[in-house]
Design brief:
Elements: H1 14-29, H2 36-43, H3 49-65, E1 70-75, E2 78-83, H4 88-94, H5 105-117, E3 120-121, H6 122-129, H7 134-143, E4 146-151, E5 159-163, H8 165-170, H9 182-201
Antiparallel strand pairs: 1-2, 3-5, 4-5
Helix pairs in contact: 5-7, 5-9
Amino acid sequence: MPCGIFLQQAELPVQNRELQQQIEAVIFASEEAVTLQVIRQVTGEEMDSAALQKVVEGINSEYLESGRPFSIHRIAGGYRMLSREEFAPLLRKLQAPKIRRRLSRSILEALSVIAYHQPVTRGEIQQIRGVSPDYAVDRLMERGFIEVRSRADTPGKPLQYGTTKEFLDLFHLSSLKDLPKLREIKEILREHEEQEYLSQSGGEELSPAETGLESGAGEYDAEEQG
């Protein structure tokens, strides 16, 4: 199915219509947020962020008018095609077989501490959580959700960690300013515990925690539990 099939082609000049379809196709096919630089490289067109935003708004207008179940969002410094939030319950059922492939509660807790207190050392994470963060930090580093930012100006100069673009992309955030409030994080962790109970008791419904820090639908790259 052509990616630009939903555009009202007659309303656009041929050149603009082709560029719009190209941009739509690139965003549709990408598994991560597509930056302006990538779009320039792929399409060979020089454009600024304002021009790209105008194209995206035009595409989204067509999606809205035709009742499509998805739209393009600006996240993590780029653009990504995501399903609309009202389809989250349906898509969680689709994700049910992958229920064991998600971040464990302990890793989510460590990630939330890093997100809200960055840059932060392992010692500071342990002081906040009360348990060793070594496993969680190592796994988050492997997955690319956190990175070493600097060294603390304290004895031993321990490493300080912060979140990455992959973290923003995973949870569909444009910037750290979009982080949920702490009470929302606590609710997510509570729902995560409830879902663990459902998975062990054979329940079929998936909680909003299945999609991470965001209540809407979308891709959720997860940590497989042992």
